[in-house]
Design goal:
By secondary structure, the chain is α+β, with helices and mostly antiparallel strands. It is built from three helices and four strands. The chain has one domain: Glutaredoxin. Helix 1 crosses helix 3.
Length: 86
């Protein structure tokens, strides 16, 4: 099964806006898709993933969290983390 990458955000979040171009760069580099989910509109994720801050990036495989990042994750760190699971 493929790895699923979710970036939880909320509108108006400065860190979230900073994360968007980083996500796009990593998507292009690794030929993957990073799902972006509004944590406020989809509040059930707050409990499910125990979200405390946005952005939060979760890397999942078969429903199990492999890795998690809270706050802005820089390009190199995110790319290296994802390479382990692709």
């Amino acid at each position: 099964m493929r790895v699923r990458v979710i970036c939880f955000y909320q509108p108006g979040c400065m860190g979230c806006m900073e994360q968007v171009p980083i996500n796009r760069e990593v998507e292009r580099a690794l030929n993957i898709t990073i799902e972006e989910i509004d944590a406020i509109k989809n509040s059930y994720y707050i409990t499910e993933f125990q979200l405390k801050v946005t952005p939060t990036i979760v890397i999942l495989k078969e429903g199990t969290v492999l890795e998690r990042f809270e706050g802005v994750v820089h390009t190199e760190q995110l790319r290296e983390a994802l390479k382990k699971y692709l």
